[in-house]
Every structure is written in C-alpha cells, then in structure tokens.
Amino acid sequence: MSVAHILKYYREEIVEISQKDAAYQLNILPSTLSNYENGRRQLPIDILRKMKDIYKIDHDTFMAIVLYETTNKEVIKEAKYEIVQKVMKAEDQEIIDFLRENPLLLNEIRSMSQLPANKLNNSIDMFIGLMRVAKIHAK
Prior knowledge:
Layout: H1 3-15, H2 19-26, H3 30-37, H4 45-54, H5 59-67, H6 73-101, H7 103-113, H8 117-138
C-alpha cells in the first residue's frame, strides 16, 4: 500500500473530511489532491507536512506511514487500529480541554450525571435540543 493510499484512507476513514475540505486546507485544488491520493502525482514534502498537521497525525505514525510501505494486511490492520485509537484520544482531549475552559458547562454535566436513569435520559435529550438551538442561533 502506497503512502498516497494510506493518507487517502486516513483522510476518509480516520479524520473523516472530504477531499474538497482537505484540498482547501492544503491550499491546493481537489483535482490535485486526487492525483496525489491516486498516485498519479508525486507528493511534495511541503504537502506531506501540511497533511500531517491537518490530519493530526502524530510524528511516529507519520514516519511509519512515510517510511514503511507494506502489503502485509495484518500490519496495515494493526496500524489502522493504532491510528484510530490515537485520533480518539486526541478528540477526547479536545473535549476535556473545552470542558475545563467552560466550568459552568462542566458543572451542569456533572450534576446531570448524578440523576437517576429515568431522568437522565430526558435531561440528555433536552440538553442536546438546547445545544442544537444554540448552534443554529450562533450562525
């Protein structure tokens, strides 16, 4: 599996951003990114660096992707699992940081967690509804 194909998989399955969004963030045309991902064009080092940052790939994983091209499906499967775990940890940390920066929200969530199960589900539904309304009005 080539570096280009691994990065395409990473963008689609791990980071879950469209080719158009990724191209915009990389400051290139979507057709150019398509050519990179399909191996029709060589990936320049500056684009590789930007991909590492935009796709939030840690240094060790990135080096493994760039330096180790393999066709061993078991190795790829294990690497994919590790990548997913690292991305999930990074996303969890972002949520934790957000809650720490917003103590009122954190306290509300803490108090909700103490509710009995029957009231908890209703509270969660109402909370999600309020968040959706707030998001609409924030636009």
